[in-house]
Amino acid sequence: MLSVLTQPLTWVVALLAVSLMVRQRPALGRKLVGTALAVLLLMGWQPLPHWLIHQLETQYAEIAPEANLKPYAGVIILGGATEEGYIAQAHSQPLLNEAAERMTAPISMLRRNPHLRIVFTGGEGSLLSTGPSEAERVRPFFDGLGLGLNQVTYEALSRTTYENAVLTAQLPDIDTQQRWLLVTSAWHMPRSMATFTKAGWNVTAYPVDFRTGTATPWTEYSLKDGARNWQLLLHECLGWVAYRLTGRL
Questions:
Q1: What is the pLDDT of residues 135-144, one digit of tens each?
Q2: Domain coverage including residue 15
Q3: Which helix (H) or strand (E) is 183 found in, with range?
Q4: CA–CA distance, 125 with 82 (Å, rounded to integer)
Q5: 49 belongs to a structural domain
Q6: Structural domains of the chain, count
Q7: For the whole prediction, is pTM greater than 0.85?
Q8: Helices (H), 149-222
Q9: Which CATH number belongs to the domain containing residue 72 in this structure?
């Protein structure tokens, strides 16, 4: 249900549906249709959502790939970089999505710092299970790179960022007081860092998957990208509210 509410096109459809239900009040119906059209047109204008996403992405500094990572015990990778389970189970290849940097950045880190331990955390985030857990879906990716169980640990039960933090801490041979690098999308990093810190982890942010630059041209317009960006923002905002209300932050 939450994922439906975070889709901006849902609100456009809701306004149009209500306009059809108030046929006895044509003036109100026209206002609702006009509002739906205004929301749809504004949705595609990229500078506004880019500016808001940029506020999330710049809360933690980007770490250079050549940085010295010797003080860290390992890397915690949050799930979210693979295609849905119902797609993955129909193919033999590992399928990465637009957040692929969550998976590729740690490989570069490991080659420069072979002492690092990789911990991947991700189960099935959908309300109804649609296939293998994300941990199962990413294992062929790491196996194909020659990384065995001695280098990669998998947590396959978590469905949320909160569960990522709590369930990963329960894995064997995990010491949350050691220094760990937390890898996730830059826009998701503020909530992730707050959640892991609250759960007792000693983590340093390693943001990846940046969606914005320092500035966006005012002429940039895309309904497709706009719907995606606003959904991302609504998801994070509602996530913050939910975590605050439940004491997870």
A1: 999 999 999 9
A2: 2-43+222-245
A3: strand 180-185
A4: 12
A5: no
A6: 2
A7: yes
A8: 161-169, 189-198
A9: 3.40.50.620
